[in-house]
Amino acid sequence: MHVQARCRLRVALTLSLASLLAACSSVGETTRNAMSAITPYKVEVVQGNFVSREQVQALQPGMSRQQVREILGTPLLTSVFHNDRWEYVFTIKRQGVQEQNRKLAVFFDGERFVRAEGDEMPSESEFVAALGKPIGKLKIPNLQATEEQLAKFPAAKNKAADTVTEETAQPQRSYPPLESR
């Protein structure tokens, strides 16, 4: 009997192992199919200062470094070896959108601005338009109730309102709607 029990145990273990291996292969295939359907979230990466066409046009030869910094912001790169040049680099990486890279170099003669050269900069409105497109038309809800809708609710009793005389009453104010139609 002892030998038969060992044989049965071996057969049971072999069958269990075979069924476990078969289950693992089907789970692996299901997992691969699920993973190909799911795209992971990718973080939006923005580096540097965005410089618009309007900002570049505001630069005038002879401006001080501080005036240039007030218009363009702090440069991303300054070098000890190129003290008379500031580098403005802007990069934005977004999921599903082509990466945007723009570079601008600002040159000084001592403390005075001389020239700027680099990529063609977009205007502020062009840049905002390139960031994203609205999904469909936004539906603006009606914010005013009709008389029929108001009739469904009982009027609130206000004891203080009963004691107010015409002399102490505040005039009613009319405010414009929150959003235009």
TrEMBL record:
<comment type="similarity">
    <text>Belongs to the BamE family.</text>
</comment>
<dbReference type="Pfam" id="PF04355">
    <property type="entry name" value="BamE"/>
</dbReference>
<comment type="subunit">
    <text>Part of the Bam complex.</text>
</comment>
<keyword id="KW-0564">Palmitate</keyword>
<keyword id="KW-0732">Signal</keyword>
<dbReference type="InterPro" id="IPR037873">
    <property type="entry name" value="BamE-like"/>
</dbReference>
<feature type="domain" description="Outer membrane protein assembly factor BamE">
    <location>
        <begin position="48"/>
        <end position="117"/>
    </location>
</feature>
<dbReference type="InterPro" id="IPR026592">
    <property type="entry name" value="BamE"/>
</dbReference>
<keyword id="KW-0449">Lipoprotein</keyword>
<feature type="signal peptide">
    <location>
        <begin position="1"/>
        <end position="22"/>
    </location>
</feature>
<feature type="region of interest" description="Disordered">
    <location>
        <begin position="154"/>
        <end position="181"/>
    </location>
</feature>
<keyword id="KW-0472">Membrane</keyword>
<dbReference type="InterPro" id="IPR007450">
    <property type="entry name" value="BamE_dom"/>
</dbReference>
<comment type="function">
    <text>Part of the outer membrane protein assembly complex, which is involved in assembly and insertion of beta-barrel proteins into the outer membrane.</text>
</comment>
<protein>
    <recommendedName>
        <fullName>Outer membrane protein assembly factor BamE</fullName>
    </recommendedName>
</protein>
<keyword id="KW-0998">Cell outer membrane</keyword>
